[in-house]
Design a protein that fits this description.
This protein has 15 helices and 13 strands. The chain is an alpha/beta fold.
Length: 391
């Protein structure tokens, strides 16, 4: 029996943790002994316990209190006024790489370490010292050109990773280590309850990005003024109410550019607008997908939108922005609509079009269902098991 240690970096519920739990639940438990190492205390532990998955929390105070992962994606570029934060991340990366990751790994017996995100490059070398290493690319890797950090992180992956798994072809191409990379889409089970045709005329829209700028929050808020009067957007996800970080320079710059005020005004606008309903963080995404006409994914930077395929499994179409990689999952006027990035007017027009033509929404949704069943089938689990067995 192969022993697999999954390392998860996030402190909040989201795509990586959700996908991790679904993967573990589907693996052949007679072939693999599985444990999850959480670097941060969070509600993910409750979900692991709920699913009967063996897990532990990092013992080092370094991870529990001080550690911050170094963002490797296009959405994670450090602003010019955050240079001190960049230095801090660099120091934390080095401490994790050369001291604390190794100490944590000594406490575990494993054959394979499955790093659940590309941000865990600091864990590559320590993991490689005692077993095989898989790194999971779950976000569009930062581009090269004049970015030395791209080449540095890429070199770590190239040197220490035995296998790279990317969740999309766009993500795989950005790292450009194709001979060692396998594209495996995440796995979802189709819902048991059939979708009611009447929901395509519901005029309700689902947005899951919270108050994240990169996920298009402000675009969705600005789109409210252009929506037909009977359309309603459900705003789901995490909506932070505190904008201060405790870092003086960052907080001063945020105050100057109106960071906190802008978000507060946006949330006030949601509360005041009959076209909007603020839901907050949810776990039962399927219940909302069952009742809405479609899902929107208005990212402002490249990012693979897992919720798009969740919507397909409920035979619901999706609307997404034209960021790189979106064309891989939303096929224009076949499974949904693509609009110009950051264009609130075009987003509203796309929403109005689908909510005004439920027969078209149904057509796109049913086509999306076929795509999801093909790309997110149990065959993907077999691909993971094939990799584990070959290492």
């Amino acid at each position: 029996m192969k022993k697999i240690l999954f390392v998860n970096h996030t402190s909040g519920w989201g795509g990586p943790a959700n996908s991790l739990i679904r993967l573990i639940n589907e693996l052949d438990q007679s072939k693999y002994s599985i444990k999850v190492l959480l670097l941060k205390p969070s509600n993910i532990a409750d979900k692991l316990k709920e699913n009967g998955i063996d897990y532990c929390l990092a013992e080092s105070r370094f991870y529990l209190k001080y550690y911050r992962f170094f963002p490797h994606s296009e959405a994670g570029y450090i602003k010019w006024y955050q240079i001190h934060y960049l230095i801090m991340l660099g120091v934390l990366w080095l401490l994790s790489r050369y001291i604390f990751a190794e100490r944590e790994l000594r406490r575990h017996d494993y054959d394979i370490v499955h790093l659940n995100s590309s941000v865990l490059t600091d864990w590559l070398a320590p993991s490689k010292a005692r077993g095989k290493v898989i790194i999971h690319i779950r976000e569009p890797f930062r581009k090269g050109w004049v970015d030395p950090l791209h080449y540095f992180f890429r070199s770590r992956i190239k040197k220490y990773a035995d296998q790279i798994i990317a969740i999309s072809h766009d993500n795989a191409s950005r790292l450009n280590l194709l001979s060692r990379t396998k594209v495996i889409y995440d796995f979802w089970r189709a819902p048991d309850i059939p979708v009611q045709d009447t929901t395509y005329a519901s005029k309700k829209i689902l947005y899951l990005g919270g108050s994240s700028t990169s996920k298009g929050f402000y675009t969705v808020v600005d789109a409210l003024e252009y929506l037909d009067k009977d359309v309603q957007i459900y705003y789901c996800g995490h909506y932070a109410t505190e904008w201060k970080t405790g870092k003086i320079l960052v907080d001063v710059m945020r105050w100057i550019i109106g960071y906190g005020r802008k978000r507060e005004k946006a949330i006030q606008k949601i509360h005041a607008n009959p076209n909007a309903k603020l839901i907050g963080l949810i776990y039962n995404v399927g219940e909302y997908l069952s009742e809405v006409c479609c899902l929107i994914s208005p990212f402002t930077v490249p990012h693979f939108s897992c919720p798009v395929f969740e919507s397909y499994l409920f035979a619901k179409p999706a609307i997404g922005s034209d960021v790189a990689g979106m064309e891989e999952i939303i096929w224009q006027r076949q499974t949904g609509l693509i609009f110009k990035r950051k264009s609130a007017l075009e987003l509203a027009q796309a929403i109005n079009e689908l909510t005004s033509h439920p027969e078209i929404a149904k057509q796109y949704g049913q086509e999306g269902y076929k795509v999801a069943i093909e790309r997110f089938s149990p065959k993907n689990i077999a691909k993971f098991e094939s990799i584990y067995d070959s290492l």
